[in-house]
Amino acid sequence: MLQLTPQTIRIVNIYDDGTNAKHFTFEPKGFVHDKPIGIGQFFMLTLPGAGLAPFTYTSLPDENGRFNALIRKVGRLTENLFSLKEGDVLGYNGPLGNGWPVEQFEDKKVLIVAGGCGLAPVATTIDYLINNNRGESVTLLYGARDLGSQVLTKERARWQTKITLCETLEEGADNAHSGLPTQHLLQTIKEYGGLPSIVLTCGPEVMMKAVAKTCIDSGLQSSDVWMSVERRMRCGVGLCGHCYVANSYACKQGPAYRYDDYLSLNNKMVSTQQHQGAFQYC
Amino acid sequence: MLNHSYLLKDLDILKQHLAKFYSMVQIEKDANGEERWTDQSDPDTVGLFGHKHLPSTSPKGFLFAEKEALYKFDGETFESITPQVVPKVLFGVQACDLTAIAYQDKFFKQDPYYQKRRENILLVGIDCESPCTNGFCAEVKAGPHVNDNTADLVVSRLTVNGSNQLAEWLVIAETEKGQNSIKGLPLDKAHKAHFILRNRLLDKMRSEFADYSYINNAIEYLNDNAVPQHLWEEMSVRCLSCSGCTNLCPTCSCYSTYEIAEKQPDNVISETKAVKTETLRVWDSCLFEGFQREASGHNPAQQAAQRVERFWFHKFSDEYLTEFQRYGCVGCGRCEQTCPGTIGVHSVMKRINQECCS
Amino acid sequence: MVQNLVNSICPFCGVGCGIGLVATDNNIISVHPLNKHPISQGKLCAKGWNTAFGISRHGRLTHPLMKIDGKFREVSWQQALSHIAKSLKKFISESGPQSVGVISSARATNEDNYAAQKFARAVLKTNNIDHCARICHSPSVAGLKKTLGSGAMTNSIDDVGKADVIFVIGADPTENHAIIGGQIMQAKLSGATLIVVDPRQTRLAKVADLHLQLNIGTNIALLNGLLNIIFNHNWQNEDFINQRCEGFSELKAHVAEYTLDKVAKITGVKGEDLVKAAKLYSQANASFLAYGMGITQFVSGTNNVIAVSNLALICGQIGREGTGINPLRGQNNVQGACDMGCLPNVYPDYQSAMDQKVREKFTQAWGTEVANFPGLTSLGMSHQAKDGHFKGLLIFGEDPVVTDPDRNKVAESFKVMDLLVVIELSMTETAKMADIVLPAASFAEKQGTFTNCERRVQLINKAVNPPGEAKIDWQILKELAKEMGVPELMDWKDSEEVFHEMTQLTHSFSGISYAGLQQNNGLQWPCNEEHPNGSRCLHAKTFPIGKGKLIPVDHAPTDEVPDSEYPFWFTTQRLHFHYGCGSMTRKSPLLERETPDGLLFMHPQDALDLGLKNHQGVAVSSRRGCVETRVEISDQVSPGLLSMPYHFKEAPSNLLTNNAMDPGTEMPELKVCAVKLVPLPENQPPRSSELSDVGIGEQYA
């Protein structure tokens, strides 16, 4: 039987990490994770009196069970979350969903394209690859609106020397780094050692689709591209119905989708194919 | 099946027997002529049965509550709120609604709240004897006779020579729970002939349905991706996002959650100040524009056409067959009645058929 | 937990749909539609489906509250009522009965409203009794009273299905009267021709055969133009005009100057479309005309109604099934509140308060002297308060701080009153300003009757007990009458007794009883000896004033027109998901999720010109105030026109709206004013205009 009632976690640390974004460290209270957390999985946070929503792990639990999340203030729930202090308790359900297929990454050249807060769901992947001494096979193309909107400052500083990191800004960058990440994608592929074997992308859905298209046009298979799809959720375990992507639920089949699966899901519906949302970082 | 089949002269005997062990839920008619599933019904009240009496609201709410508390928080820890249940018998559920319950049983297999209620419910199904106003159960294999393994007990009227005077009821105990429920009730065994008669009545009844072939044609068009975008656009203008279809659909299962905080407004001085919160869930509708809208304002289903198409996709797509072995639509026709925009199942399927045929 | 089912009537708009309340553990958990209900037939709108949230026990007022040192404290009923009674008596003895008044509620039952006007007239001895019909259909009551003799919807809702042409002007029924809107869409599917006249591209306009997207505030020009076209083509119904109308030649001569070119220029509607509409409406067997706030909420509101009436009369599209002049009423019981005489100038059943005979009749029936001087409207009471002549006001279930025009002025007048008592379900913006707040029972917690827009009186039944110490409005008034020293005046034992008293004093309702309502799924008034089964269709043979009056009216500009300082047209609208001030619908997490806290509809071209992104914050100001809200880019509005719903206390459109008034009825021009707009920086959220918990007085002090 599924457990919808959350377990309790305590906030042990909060610091600012980008405009309207904070980095939270949580500690389990009265429980330990009984199964390992997969890279790219997510969890639900319950704010008593405010609601619940999915968030991603930016670090896996350490020896004390502590883990991190990068959270941007975008709505009422996160506004409430930002008013909390260290020591406050919250509800937690996790880990949930299917993460990235890191086991398939062995010896492969990995390109990661992230936009805005979309960097958070790939952070654990990058750390995983670095920890497995595979940093040199990783290229990260990270796009944000402007300097202030960039997140995971400490992490990027740590990664700087271990992986190939290329950052773009919509506003306030020099010519070589100005614009959307998709505009720099081909250049990045060319500069950093040619076509990757696998691409992970996370950010606005329109951006991810554009990334996938460019990669496929450059010769990759659609099955080599993976994306992490964001949806509103009310349970995280396939019951509430909110996170549908055609006939799948992002909380169960996703949040990481292989691009060909994603396409064949969406191609079932005429109206979804027709509709393209606006490109906006979150 | 023959092993656990019996004959019964008077359905009331069965009802009175079950009423000893279960709280009775049956279809009653109120002063305004409204027919509905009535909780804690007096077993002496004559219930309404069969095709003529499909209530506008299905018994879904007895299993998947329209609104229920999931858990509470006292400031330190979270505690589950388990539904308070008593054993209930749903007496006289029609085939379409039973098919829907079987569908939801699969969907909510792991849901503790649903299952807690489900375990305490005995389902007594009834074979319909004639098509109902908007029903097309035969077209989607949900009726008119109760599908196997969707009820604990099935009762079927064996009408002889078209006269109801000599009617005898065939009672089939389909599950162990059903068998246990009639233990101690002196019943004659049924014979093969009774089943043959039941099947003959079924065949006769099938022929009484109107021509609903447009439904299956439209299902095909839907699955072939052949419904043009403009038709979804046209139909979606008529969707007011009232949530009627999803509320009444016996297989719709989406819910939202919300919080209740026990707290007086700040401008009122009061004795009770302790903060306690409860998280509840409530039936939701994928036809609401806000259903998928994210906090950032981005909405993967911004257009009404997307939402309307997705709803019908969910009811009729082959994509769901692997998981549920059937379509999400059970042919009860309730959405046709409740839709203020005239885009219930018959209207939509007819329009798809017209559009794609021409 | 046992589920109980109780049938009732939806508490939102004036359509009057049937709902089944599902109660568990003395709490309404959900609502079922009723297939057998004659109007809704198993359908409901999003508001109706979400009724349970609006009246849930959570967030309800449960005890009388008295404001002491700026904070509310719980007090006993006895304390609260004796304080109110003492104060009212003091005001009356010092300043006369003109200094006190009652605002009743179009959401409350007929029984509550009857009690409210009786309390005002018999206990307080004042005609200062009003309710929110003032700001929705007072011009309908006044205009149609003049032309026909009766201000209600002439036909029945299901006549929509019997019409060949449906003519909707200044109404957005799929959002505001969704079940009627649905029936119109269905009628169109079944072959009826649909004409929509609206400055916005409403949902109905999208499905209509003909959408006349007129410039805002040009209704009379358009209607006179249609009349002129009809006369020029001889499309009028001569027989009907000869037998049933007077004033034809004056009208014909008057509209002659509304030539096609002139009207096209004023209204912005193509001449050929005007001709098409005129032909369709006049030549159809049965044309059903429906209108709403887009006709009434103008300084020319009464004249607009008269122009509508002229059109229907000269075409003879009235008095038969499938036709008629049909004002769509806003609240579940705004028809009833008017019928019950919660207006300063009329007693129940529109018996004139100025008529000595009527006063004598009620004096005798009630056994006490009644008020004998003219009463004030709600806005009149506000004005008098500012001049220091008005001291004490009871408000039942209304939130004028959010819903009335020019909020700052409304709030100031409440602030200077010596006693403001608000009787409410929850702590609304107006309640925050009160001296005393009394907890009221919701519609699900009492028995009584509502009258829908087709004049159908329908029974509501009690499904649960009121929370805490909450009481029914008429019970509160009964207690207060006792406290005022006249217990015998309002000593009813139940709502049926109140209703019975009312039927004894009226003609239109004299044939109605609770038993009859129960049997018939409601009855449409007039229901009396002549019409024992009620009346589906009014004016079949004659009008209450004999012949229908054709009255020439002229197009006049709105009070404000855009200029260089305030360059945009501004109008107000409602959303399908919300109702009035939102105090009930916004308690539903599902409805609350549908829309942001406030929004301003703007044409894509205007957004482009101003460099605005969708949902970007903007500051909108008029000559009266400023509101910050978000832009919603939409082709619903034409370039140069901005539209805003009024449901949101965070972004109250009524900080902007104009209180210039229709002279006869004091209907403010809520539908149009001029505004200017300043974009907020892209990531800056709009500032909320919601009042602090202690109300506007302290905030502004």
List keywords for this structure.
heterotrimer; A: 282 residues; alpha/beta; Elongation Factor Tu (Ef-tu), domain 3; Rossmann fold; 2 domains; 6-stranded antiparallel beta sheet; 6-stranded mixed beta sheet; 7 helices; 14 strands; B: 358 residues; alpha+beta; Aspartate Aminotransferase, domain 2; 8-stranded mixed beta sheet; 4-stranded antiparallel beta sheet; 12 helices; 13 strands; globular
Structure write-up:
The complex is a heterotrimer of chains A (282), B (358) and C (701). By secondary structure, chain A is of the alpha/beta class. Chain A has helices at 76-82, 120-131, 153-159, 181-191, 205-217, 259-266, 270-274, and strands spanning 7-16, 21-29, 42-47, 51-56, 67-72, 89-96, 110-115, 138-144, 164-169, 198-202, 225-228, 244-245, 248-249, 256-258. Chain A folds into two domains: 7-96, Beta Barrel (Elongation Factor Tu (Ef-tu), domain 3), CATH 2.40.30.10; 102-269, Nucleotide-binding domain of ferredoxin-NADP reductase (FNR) module (Rossmann fold). Chain A is built from seven helices and 14 strands. Chain A has a six-stranded antiparallel beta sheet, with helices on one face. Chain A has a six-stranded mixed beta sheet with strand order 9-8-7-10-11-14, sandwiched between helices. A two-stranded antiparallel ribbon of chain A has the order 12-13. In chain A, α4 (181-191) packs parallel to α5. Chain A is globular. Chain B folds into two domains: 2-69 and 82-206, Aspartate Aminotransferase, domain 2; 213-252 and 289-357, no CATH class. Chain B is 31% helix and 22% strand. Chain B has helices at 11-19, 95-107, 112-119, 176-181, 192-206, 213-223, 229-237, 244-248, 304-316, 321-324, 334-338, 345-357, and strands spanning 5-8, 23-29, 35-38, 67-73, 78-80, 88-94, 121-126, 153-160, 163-173, 188-189, 255-262, 268-269, 276-283. In chain B, β2 and β3 (35-38) form a beta hairpin. In chain B, α6 packs across α12 (345-357) and α7 (229-237) packs across α9 (304-316). The longest helix of chain B is centred in the middle third of the chain and has 15 residues, at 192-206. Chain B starts with a strand and ends with a helix. Chain C has 701 residues and is of the alpha/beta class. In chain C, α4 packs across α23 (495-504) and α9 (219-232) runs antiparallel to α12 (260-267). The longest helix of chain C is centred in the N-terminal third of the chain and has 19 residues, at 77-95. The radius of gyration of chain C is 24 Å and the shape is globular. The interface between A and B is large, with 52 and 58 residues.
